Amino acid sequence: MKENSVGLVKPKTFHVDEPLHTVSGSVIPAYDLVYETYGQLNADKSNAILICHALSGNHHVAGYYDGDEKPGWWEHYVGPGKPIDTNRFFVVGVNNLGGCHGSTGPASINPETGRPWGPDFPIITVKDWVVSQDKLREHLGIEQWAAVVGGSLGGMQVIQWAIDRPDRLRHAVVIAAAPRLSAQNIAFNEVARTAIMSDPDFHGGRYLEHGVIPKRGLALARMLGHLTYLSDDLMGKKFGRELRDRLKYNFDVEFQVESYLRYQGEKFATRSKFDANTYLLMTKALDYFDPAAEYDHDLSKAFARVQAGFLVVSFTSDWRFSPERSEEIVRALLDNDKNVSYAEIESQHGHDAFLLPNPFYEGVFSAYMDRVAREVGA
Amino acid sequence: MSSENRTLSPEFQLISSWIEPNSRVLDLGCGDGTLLAHLQSARNASGYGMELDPNLVIESIKNGINVIQSDLNKKSLLDYFDEDSFDYVIMTQALQVVDRPDLLLDEMLTIGKQSIVTFPNFGYWKNRVQLMFSGRMPETETLPYHWYDTPNIHLCTFKDFEALCAKKGFEIVRRAVVDQQHQTSLGMTLFPNLLGQIALYQIRRKDRSNG
Asked: Chain A within 8 Å of B81 (Cβ-Cβ)?
């Protein structure tokens, strides 16, 4: 077994047998949430951490599945002795509703029709995720999370948790997030959606019933997304203008960066079998996220009743969710005299930096989580 | 001295004694957070530290304070805080390294009702002696740098600082001087600009004196 890892893990399923009334006005009569846990819940159930995933993430945060070489998506930050130390915390990773890794989503069978939900699956918002994740909290018998933690779209869920369920979390760790998307962010998402929906294999979202998947559209959406997660600097360093062979003066893949992007797109669409409808749904959840909207579009007002202590982290080269966006969150918390610490991490890895090793990021994250652990006696 | 004071420098102890209990405090260039952590526990203060150095940000978090990483040479305090957000805005041993101390002091006294500022006194006799007799920029215990690598780009004497305060309309509420061991003596009280190595000032805007 790999060192400093939670080791072999198995997902569990929690069936919620009560309807979810979504923000979009739909009703999901019942649903499954797939989740994983690492570490031990202590006697007074005070050491639980919820980890919220980003656009293409899932409940497999750390550890390995039997026969699998690749660990969970946040293996570097979750495990024994790591910033989220599974020797001290009970860690919960959950696949969001609408996902495609086991939780009920567009690829699941709609009990009313006996067919996959497909495009009929209700639009899910970040608020709906908090409601569903709160059901899991109750199911696990946890009064209050020691912390809710997430990066990117995961960080947005953390913000929503702090606003909608102020007494259910002691701490909020918001990494590489933003209080709402910019027009440019929404535009990127729209291009990704257009790529998927214009694939001839999309069939209006009913591709499963046609026995196909819109691979090209999905790969293209991923290529675009991936591009926005990296920094110009890093791509320059990693690929430069390096060629695979020599210039041939045609439209084949000639530059290494083209080859890399195509590989990322293919891997996502084919090997990881990410569901195209889920991708559409997740990008919509991102677009709709705007917690201030309910509070006269004033983020400071939205944070007025927040009780959690905040750690906000950004990365210098992240242009998708830049440090300035994180500072909007910080400023709104400062306006309310809330407990908040903020670190802007020097990194050349763009938005992806929140997943990657970085000594300063680890130092900040560990120091903060150590404080959380001491507070809850873990 | 209480047990938690044992490791606190006399400079910080003096500042702590100037802070009213239950105050809102901002500590600019808070270092490892020692002072604010002490003010939280000993004076029941609350507030934030600001620091640029990544390692010191980590130490501040370890010390249990709220710390905001920021470069005060690039950002305005008004980007973060409204007027009168704090009872005290403290800055220890950092005035001389900022781009425009005069403008920063203005901001400090906008977001805070009062400020406490400490800095090394360039008028300290050893500095004067070195400059006068060796003709070279002084290198002393409080100013251990060479002229070419020093972060201290705006060194001043007590008199310089007080002249700036007068020009800006800042009232000096309290003043103290300490030596490198951060202790005071009779000589320093009589000839502060000559014998004091480190200056501590508590200032506020004159037009707020009665506020």
From this structure: yes
Q: Chain A within 8 Å of B110 (Cβ-Cβ)?
A: no
How far apart are the C-alpha atoms of B89 and A314, rounded to whole Å? 26
State how far the alpha carbon of B158 is from the alpha carbons of B36, B106, B196, B206, in Å. 25, 18, 9, 19
Domain ranges in chain A are: 12-180+291-376, 184-285
CATH C-level class of A184-285? mainly alpha
Q: Which among B136, B137, B121 is positioned nearest to B191, based on CA atoms?
A: B121
- Give pTM, 2 decimals: 0.93
Q: Which two tokens stand for residue A17?
A: 């047998």
Distances (CA, A) of B93 to A15, A329, B12, B131: 59, 30, 11, 22
Question: How far is residue A66 CA from its own chain's centroid?
Answer: 24
Structure tokens at A184: 């440019």
In chain A, what residues touch B61 (CB-CB under 8 Å)? Answer: 311, 341, 364, 367-368, 371
Q: What are the average pLDDT values for consecutive 10-residue runs of chain A, which has 378 residues?
A: 86 97 96 98 97 96 95 97 98 98 96 94 98 98 98 98 98 98 95 97 96 94 91 87 87 87 88 92 97 98 98 96 97 98 97 96 98 96
The answer to whether residues A376 and A41 touch, using CB atoms and an 8 Å cutoff, is no
- Which candidate in A85, A132, A318, A326 is catalytic? A318
Q: Find how far residue B61's CA is from the centre of its chain.
A: 21
Q: Of the ranges A162-166, B141-145, B188-192, which one carries the lowest mean pLDDT score?
A: B188-192
- Other C-beta atoms lying within 10 Å of the C-beta of residue A121: 24
Parallel/antiparallel/unpaired status of strands A90-94 and A31-38: antiparallel
Tell me the angle at which helices A276-288 and A126-139 cross, rounded to the nearest 10 degrees.
100
Between CA B168 and CA B105 the distance in angstroms is 9
Tens digit of each residue's pLDDT (9 = 90 or more) over B43-96: 999 999 999 999 999 999 999 999 999 998 899 999 999 999 999 999 998 888
Answer yes or no: is A325 a known binding residue. Answer: no
Q: Reduced to 3 states, what is the DSSP secondary structure of residue A319? A: coil
Cβ-contact B108, B28 below 8 angstroms = yes
Provide the 3-class DSSP secondary structure of residue A354.
Answer: helix
In sequence order, what are the residues at sequence separation of 6 or more whose Cβ sits closer than 8 angstroms to the Cβ of residue B198? B11, B93, B118, B119, B120, B121, B142, B177, B178, B179, B180, B182
Q: Which residues does A328 contact at the CB level (< 8 Å), separation at least 6?
A: A178, A179, A299
Cβ <8 Å between A363 and B80: no
CATH classification code of A12-180+291-376 = 3.40.50.1820
Structural domains of chain B in order of their starting residue, each with its CATH number: 3-121+153-205 (3.40.50.150)
| Bridge partners for B175 per DSSP | B201
Does this chain's domain A12-180+291-376 share its CATH topology with A184-285?
Answer: no
